């Protein structure tokens, strides 16, 4: 009986892995096809001749170097800002004592129920009135803090004994010194997880950059994919090549930090 259960479990995992990975694999394969091969019906799964020139054409048809710089800058600054604000907020909610702390936590968690689409136009009006449209500040400021990541770090921080903080205070350690020298090294797996998830979210942003930028010089990578859609139709093979270029940095980051991500997620998951 156990062998049958294991067989179906492995079969399910293999099928789900195939369903998950196939779009990415086909995207890479389609990026090396000709236009006719990429739109053929029934679809072709291998190019007759590998078209490396698609990647050269992508870089020539759109200012992808500029898009890449913008996306990298916005993602790094946003991630750094989120890490600073969420660590400080989580520290205050876990280690410090103040009136109505539970009410504050309840209010913050309530904000998680509000979808981004419900506040996007309010944020747009705020950015427009501040005169920040078509600037890096418009792309970064609305995402400089995150309730979700703050709550995630709060849950992780609650696994750290509060006696560490009290002992540090007795030794004359300040709050910022305690965070820098004690808290951050202990929380490294959770910080890597938050940092990578935030970086990926910023890297994949599409709607907000489209709303607050007007010139190609301020566009991000995902907005640049529209450059390969014309009135005659989409250049599918170029869109696939551009998409492949877009996801490569994220894949590299994931493989570089996968151990820390799994460690951070599993520790919070076990606690929950």
Automatic annotation (TrEMBL):
Biological process terms in GO annotation: transmembrane transport
PROSITE patterns per record: ABC_TM1 (PS50928)
This protein's UniProt keywords: Cell membrane, Membrane, Transmembrane, Transmembrane helix, Transport
Major subcellular location class: membrane
Pfam family for this entry, one: BPD_transp_1
Membrane-spanning segments: 7-29, 73-96, 103-124, 136-153, 190-211, 238-257
Cellular compartments annotated: Cell membrane
GO cellular component: plasma membrane
Membrane topology, as annotated: Multi-pass membrane protein
Occurrences of domain ABC transmembrane type-1 (ranges): 68-257
Alphabetized InterPro entries for the sequence: MetI-like, MetI-like_sf
PANTHER family, per the entry: ABC TRANSPORTER PERMEASE PROTEIN MG189-RELATED, ABC TRANSPORTER PERMEASE PROTEIN MG189-RELATED-RELATED
Similarity field: Belongs to the binding-protein-dependent transport system permease family.
Name of the protein: Sugar ABC transporter permease
